Structures are given as structure tokens and as C-alpha cells.
């Protein structure tokens, strides 16, 4: 089957709740078969966007297209989306098998598969989520991770056009989260199901997604592969949201960025001259001799995790600068050090 | 209530358990509660039965050989059979609307639902007299069209519905609010129609709470005196419900018959109590009511 490359087009969506604007003229294309992560802090409107795509909320303005068809006016039932809720929303009074079969059983008689066929599909899905033999259990008898998998199977059972996951791992503990992430990626690779998931966890978005869409206060800041958004953040907001960083007062001059009069390897955006803010990641800082350093301070603490060394340096203004460097030397607290900037971003 | 009286675990630093100094207090409190219950509930109940059987079983049964008694029982059952289903439908609709949607005037609606609890039943009855009586607002129109509301079944049903309508909604609103609407939303995304989602998801989730409230609603519908008394007209054999029939017998100094018929209401109360306790014990987690106690 020849599928259009754009599975879902979000066109100029705006949404206001009461008086608070949640989404501002937001547009985004979701490619067929991709796993798109909607990343943003709480209140960024990401869940609202997901609900609007599903038809659970109506936009004030804008359109939602599924392929070439305008779906804006379609009721949620007609959209054929699979929605996985943050707290699973499993039907408590139904067995796992009945939960998974719900969407098939809810169809009109003419479209409903035969009982044996439903049973077979439920069995297949139970295999897929590695819960064969759990069909007769009730949701209350399952762990959080198992419930999450049942919710996913229930959504997949109706063969949705797109799978929408709202904070799919939000309510789980760290280890289960990690396993489920890997498993979701596997399922996605196997089924090729167009999937959008919402998260506020940068690591989760960067690890899992084909592309990441960063949302902030109802606006789309950037869409790109995890590498693109990390290496070329489009704005200070994206830069800040994607991880630890240090803000440094700098000067743009002759196409270069200078810190305390010393040149850095960072190029200034075209046409930018004068004072600018330079954003630097911990691994773009390096311990250096005072004469080659851009910044200086004293060591507060130093520790190693998983092959990396992390040193926290306090500068004169009392700010904590996190440095990731590996020189194999122990840096005692209180020791004065210089820091060299090896990279960073300036936004015009 | 039981948490208050059960011994509390003392923090390890204390030499004496917290509960020990409360032992005397506890006994007194329990004593007061039991004495109160005995005086105001158990004693009257015993009185009803002893009075009913004071002239022997034969006299007791004689009260039920009266055609008027049977007509009162029939009328009471008829009124309950109309009022209770009506309030189930209204209660479901109101609690659904209040729990799952935001709309202007919502808090006003919640207040209005409570109104029958705060208005004297006699006043509730009078409202219908003012509306449907021959001097009332719709009185002339009703007379012209030959429709009898007051002093007939429709009036009694209206008064009963008014007095009992908070029961179902009051129980279901907190229950539905707590459950939220994500299960319903999940059903809709899976292609279920609104009605299908209601039948397969919402209703099973509230079934015990609904049964619980129907039980209380029914007990009140059958036992209501004040409002019904105002609108019924006390026509023997026609518009007397069980409580009104009891009153008439009592006023005629026919104590045995009055108490004999009253035992019906007492037994209804006891059955309701047992079923209610069973539901509270068995399905505490699924009742809005069970949690708050």
C-alpha cells in the first residue's frame, strides 16, 4: 500500500481554556511510521495537542488532517486513533482479555469480527505484550508496567491509524520505565505504527523518538531528530530544556564569541554584535590552566558515574557550574580551577 | 466511626500508650451512643411490635383484612414504583452532567438538588397545592381539561419525587467525580458510541452506589408522610398511603391496627438497613458513601 509520507498534519491549531491560552497557532507534520516525541515542561500544551489530535478536545482554530482528509470535524469514534492514557484507564470490572477486545466488541454487528477471530486477535496481542496467560486476570491484579502494556494492546487491537500515548511511563518506577521504553521501541519497529507520545522527560524523548517536537507555552519551538535538537537547538528555550547548561556573559565581535576577552571556538550568528548570552553544556567545559581559561572558580565537589567525571565548580558570583571532563585527577573541594569553553550556542 | 474507638498505635517514645488514658473516655462515649440508640431507635421499634401484637396474632392479622389497608399498600407500592425509577433517571442524568462536564450554573444546580433536604416536607406539599390546586397557578386549566393532579395519584407521585430526588444524585455525584472520565474517554477512542460506553463502562462502575441510593430512595418514598399528607386529601381507600393510613387508624384510637400496619414500615426499614449495611461492608470501595465514614 502506498502511504502518503505525512500521516497527520496539524495546521494552525489554537486552543484556549477559560481565559488561559494553551496552544498558539501550532503546526506540525507527523510522518507515516515515525515515532514522534512531544517534549515540553508541564503546562506547555502537549497533552492538549494530543487530545485535539484524538478528538477528545476541539480546537478553537486550525485543522487536523489525517493523510489528505480533514478530520477536524470528525467525532473521536470516527478517527480510529489508539489512545493510551497516563493512568491507563483500563476498565476495572473487565478481564484483561475483555479490555483488549473492547474496541472490537464495540463495533456495529456488520463490522464486528467473529467471536473466534476476536479471541485469536486478543491472543496475538497478549503474546505481543508478553502477557499470554494473563487474559483472565483483572487490572487490579496487575503491576503498573503490566497495566500499561494492556492499555497499549487495547489501543492496538482496533488497528488505529495513529497511536497516541500520554506520558506513557509517567507513573512507573525507574527500572520498569527503562525496560518499557526499550520494549515500546521494539514494538514500534516491528509494527511500523505511526506513534506520537507525550513526555516531560528529556532522556525519554531523546532515547525513544525518531523525531522530537519541543513545545513551550503552547508554541512549537523546534522539531528535529534527537541529534538535531541537541546539536543545533533552535532557541534558548530548547537549549535550556534539553539538559544542564551554564549561561555565560559573552561578547560577539567579528563573527566570533569572546568571553572575558578570550576567543572561544563558538561562532557568533551573522550580524550579531555586542553583548550576548552563551549557553554551554557541561561536556563543553574543560578544566584548564588559568592563563587559557574563560571562567574560574573553586571546586565544590567531584564524583564519577558510569565512566564520566562530574565536577561542580562555584564561580565568584556563587553560581554552580557543572563540568564533565575526564582527566583522571581527583579534584579536592576548595581547589581553585580555571575552565575553558570548547563549544556552546548563542541565539540571535 | 470505628477508627475513633479502635486503639491507636502509640509512638515508641511514649511510655504509656495513647489509648490507655482514653479508656474511660471511650467507655463513656460508647455508653452514651448505645443509650441514645436504645432510647430513640430500639425502644420505639420494640414498642411498635409489642403494640401491634398486644391483642394477639388474630387482631394483628385483622388489620390486614381491611380493604382500606390493602388499597394503602397498593398505592404506596405504585407511588414508589413510579417515583424511584424517575429519580434514578434524573439522578443519573444530573450526576453525569455535574461530574463529567463544566457548565455555567453548575454550583447552582448542586444547591438545588439539595433543596428538598432543607425544605420542610409540608412546604414541599404546599408548593404543589399552590401550583395545581383549584385556586392554584394551573388550577383552572387543569379543571377545564378534566385533569386531576391534587388529591389523586399524580399529586402524590409529584410530592414523593420532590422529596426523594436528592438521594440518587447525592450518592452518585462524588462517586462519578472521583472516577473521572478517562475510562469513558478510553471507550470512545476505541470506537464505542456514547450510549455503549455508558452501558459497558459507566454503569458497571457505579452499580453498587446506584443500588445503595435506590434502596434509600425507596425507603423514603414509601415512608414519606408530610408532603404526601398535604397533597393526598386523605380519601380512604383511594389516596391514602401506608403512613397516612397509620395516622388515620391512630386518630381513630384503633391502636392495634395502627401499629400492625406500622410494622410494615418498620420491617421495610429493617430490610433496608440490612441491605445497606451489606453493601457498605461488601463494596465499601465502590460507594462514595462508604469512604466518607
What string gives the helices and strands of chain A in order?
EEEHEEEHHHEHEHEEHHEEEEEEEEEE
Structural class of chain B: mainly alpha
Q: What are the segments of chain A in which pLDDT stays under 50 over at least 5 consecutive residues? A: none
What is the arithmetic mean of pLDDT of chain B?
A: 87
Which sequence of SSEs, written as H and E, runs from N to C of chain B? HHHHHHHHHHHHHHHH
Any idea what the shape of chain B is?
globular
How many helices of chain A does DSSP assign? 8
Q: How is the main sheet of chain B built?
A: none
* Unreliable sequence segments of chain B: 1-11
So what's the overall shape of chain A? elongated
Terminal residue distance of chain B: 6 Å
Helix content of chain A: 10-25%
Strand content of chain B: under 5%
Radius of gyration of chain A: 25 Å
Strand content of chain A: 35-45%
Radius of gyration of chain B: 24 Å
Largest interface: A-B, 26 and 16 residues
Strand order, main sheet of chain A: write it out. Answer: 6-7-8-3-9-10
Features:
heterodimer; A: 6-stranded mixed β-sheet; 5-stranded antiparallel β-sheet; 8 helices; B: 293 residues; mainly alpha; 16 helices
Protein model, in words:
The complex is a heterodimer of chains A (about 350) and B (about 290). Chain A is an alpha+beta fold and about 350 residues long. In chain A, about 25% of the residues lie in helices and about 35% in strands. Chain A has helices at about 45-55, 95-105, 115-130, 145-155, 175-190, 200-210, 225-230, 235-240; strands at about 5-15, 20-30, 35-40, 60-65, 70, 80-85, 160-165, 195-200, 210-215, 220-225, 245-255, 255-260, 260-265, 275-280, 285-290, 295-305, 310-315, 320-325, 335-340, 345. A six-stranded mixed β-sheet of chain A has the order 6-7-8-3-9-10, with helices on both faces. In chain A, strands 13-12-11-14-20 form a five-stranded antiparallel β-sheet. In chain A, helix 2 (about 95-105) packs across helix 3 (about 115-130) and helix 2 runs parallel beside helix 4. Chain B is mainly alpha-helical and about 290 residues long. In chain B, about 75% of the residues lie in helices and about 0% in strands. Chain B has helices spanning about 1-5, 20, 25-50, 55-60, 65-100, 105-120, 120-130, 140-145, 155-165, 165-180, 180-190, 195-225, 225-230, 240-250, 255-280, 290. The N and C termini of chain B lie close together (about 5 Å). The interface between A and B is medium-sized, with 26 and 16 residues.
Amino acid at each position: 500500500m502506498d502511504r502518503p509520507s505525512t500521516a497527520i498534519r496539524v495546521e494552525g491549531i489554537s486552543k484556549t481554556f477559560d481565559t488561559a491560552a494553551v496552544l498558539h497557532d501550532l503546526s506540525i507534520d507527523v510522518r507515516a511510521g515515525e515515532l514522534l516525541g512531544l517534549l515540553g515542561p508541564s503546562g506547555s500544551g502537549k497533552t492538549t495537542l494530543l487530545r485535539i489530535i484524538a478528538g477528545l478536545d476541539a480546537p478553537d482554530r486550525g485543522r487536523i488532517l489525517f493523510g489528505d482528509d480533514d478530520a477536524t470535524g470528525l467525532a473521536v469514534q470516527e478517527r480510529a486513533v489508539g489512545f493510551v492514557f497516563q493512568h491507563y484507564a483500563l476498565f476495572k470490572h473487565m478481564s484483561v482479555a475483555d479490555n483488549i477486545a473492547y474496541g472490537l466488541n464495540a463495533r456495529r454487528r456488520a463490522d464486528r469480527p467473529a467471536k473466534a477471530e476476536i479471541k485469536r486477535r486478543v491472543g496475538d496481542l497478549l503474546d505481543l505484550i508478553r502477557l499470554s496467560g494473563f487474559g483472565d486476570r483483572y487490572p487490579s491484579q496487575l503491576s503498573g508496567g503490566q497495566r500499561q502494556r494492556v492499555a497499549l494492546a487495547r489501543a492496538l487491537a482496533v488497528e488505529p491509524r495513529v497511536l497516541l500515548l500520554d506520558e506513557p511511563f509517567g507513573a512507573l518506577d525507574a527500572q520498569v520505565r527503562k525496560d518499557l521504553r526499550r520494549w515500546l521501541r521494539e514494538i514500534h519497529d516491528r509494527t511500523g505504527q505511526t506513534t506520537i507520545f507525550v513526555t516531560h522527560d528529556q532522556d525519554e524523548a531523546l532515547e525513544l523518538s525518531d523525531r522530537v517536537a519541543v513545545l513551550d507555552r503552547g508554541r512549537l519551538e523546534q522539531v528535529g531528530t534527537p541529534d538535531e535538537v541537541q546539536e543545533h537547538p533552535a532557541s534558548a528555550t530548547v537549549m535550556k530544556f534539553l539538559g544542564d547548561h551554564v549561561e555565560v556573559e559573552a561578547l560577539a565581535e567579528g563573527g566570533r564569541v569572546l568571553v572575558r576577552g578570550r576567543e572561544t571556538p563558538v561562532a557568533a550568528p551573522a550580524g550579531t554584535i555586542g553583548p550576548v548570552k552563551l549557553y554551554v553544556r557541561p561536556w563543553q567545559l574543560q578544566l584548564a590552566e588559568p592563563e587559557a581559561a574563560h571562567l574560574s572558580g573553586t571546586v565544590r565537589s567531584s564524583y564519577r558515574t558510569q565512566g564520566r567525571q562530574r565536577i561542580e565548580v562555584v564561580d565568584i558570583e556563587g553560581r554552580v557550574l557543572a563540568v564533565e571532563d575526564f582527566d583522571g585527577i581527583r579534584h579536592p573541594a576548595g581547589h581553585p580551577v580555571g575552565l575553558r569553553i570548547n563549544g556552546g550556542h548563542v541565539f540571535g | 466511626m470505628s477508627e475513633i474507638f479502635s486503639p491507636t498505635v502509640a509512638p515508641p517514645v511514649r511510655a504509656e500508650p495513647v489509648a490507655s488514658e482514653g479508656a474511660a473516655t471511650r467507655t463513656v462515649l460508647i455508653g452514651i451512643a448505645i443509650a441514645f440508640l436504645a432510647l430513640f431507635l430500639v425502644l420505639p421499634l420494640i414498642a411498635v411490635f409489642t403494640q401491634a401484637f398486644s391483642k394477639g396474632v388474630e387482631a394483628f392479622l385483622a388489620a390486614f383484612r381491611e380493604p382500606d389497608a390493602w388499597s394503602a399498600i397498593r398505592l404506596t407500592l405504585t407511588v414508589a414504583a413510579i417515583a424511584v425509577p424517575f429519580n434514578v433517571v434524573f439522578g443519573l442524568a444530573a450526576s453525569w452532567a455535574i461530574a463529567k462536564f463544566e457548565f455555567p450554573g453548575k454550583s447552582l444546580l448542586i444547591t438545588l438538588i439539595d433543596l428538598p433536604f432543607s425544605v420542610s416536607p409540608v412546604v414541599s406539599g404546599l408548593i404543589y397545592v399552590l401550583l395545581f390546586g383549584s385556586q392554584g397557578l394551573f388550577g383552572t386549566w387543569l379543571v377545564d381539561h378534566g385533569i386531576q393532579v391534587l388529591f389523586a395519584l399524580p399529586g402524590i407521585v409529584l410530592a414523593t419525587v420532590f422529596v426523594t430526588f436528592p438521594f440518587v444524585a447525592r450518592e452518585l455525584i462524588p462517586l462519578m467525580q472521583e472516577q473521572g472520565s478517562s475510562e469513558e474517554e478510553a471507550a470512545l477512542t476505541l470506537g464505542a458510541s456514547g450510549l455503549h460506553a455508558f452501558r459497558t463502562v459507566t454503569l458497571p462502575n457505579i452499580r453498587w452506589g446506584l443500588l445503595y441510593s435506590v434502596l434509600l430512595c425507596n425507603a423514603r418514598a414509601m415512608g414519606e408522610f408530610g408532603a404526601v399528607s398535604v397533597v393526598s386529601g386523605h380519601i380512604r381507600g383511594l389516596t391514602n398511603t401506608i403512613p397516612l393510613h397509620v395516622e388515620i387508624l391512630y386518630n381513630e384510637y384503633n391502636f392495634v391496627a395502627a401499629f400492625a400496619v406500622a410494622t410494615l414500615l418498620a420491617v421495610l426499614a429493617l430490610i433496608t438497613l440490612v441491605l445497606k449495611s451489606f453493601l457498605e461492608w461488601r463494596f465499601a470501595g465502590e460507594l462514595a458513601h462508604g469512604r466518607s465514614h
